[in-house]
């Protein structure tokens, strides 16, 4: 997360230094988010396709997995004005070529800010320079976890999570010891 006031990036409350980042195009989500005692987000089925605002108080939101040049993985998921504007400016630089670069990841140089002066405060929008498409590093593995689907009171896992779980069961890698209670 980026803090407007001090222009620093944070992960888990700690300042992180970002120089270059890769993003996973397969994890892009766009939609709406708000804070109402808890984080609430609603994402479109297809990135960048506008969906109706759920209710007043929601702001435009995005979520994407990133990989830093010092080999750290982060989920960048926000609905602040400045970060959303930064994300949109990033997307304009690479999204049109996404199909021609399947299996690759866009790389960006992090640096500088665009300042937007509003009545009550200035917004510092982080700037990213597109450096090109690169092969995905072996270390840039996106977590398999996806939220379960809930329909008609029944909870079911996504196909990917269900397949991974079944593979562990078949290899007898899951035991009663894996149950946390």
Can you put this structure into words, describing what you see?
The chain is mainly β. The protein has two helices and twelve strands. Strands 4, 5, 6, 7, 8, 9 and 10 form a seven-stranded antiparallel β-sheet that branches. A three-stranded antiparallel β-sheet has the order 1-2-3, with no helix packed on it. A two-stranded antiparallel sheet has the order 11-12. β2 and β3 form a beta hairpin. The relative contact order is 0.15. The model has no long low-confidence stretch (mean pLDDT 81).
How do you describe this structure in short?
The chain has helices at residues 81-94, 159-170, and strands spanning 2-3, 8-11, 14-16, 20-23, 29-35, 39-43, 59-68, 73-78, 104-117, 122-135, 149-151, 154-156.
Offer a few descriptive terms.
181 residues, mainly beta, 2 domains, 3-stranded antiparallel β-sheet, 41% strand
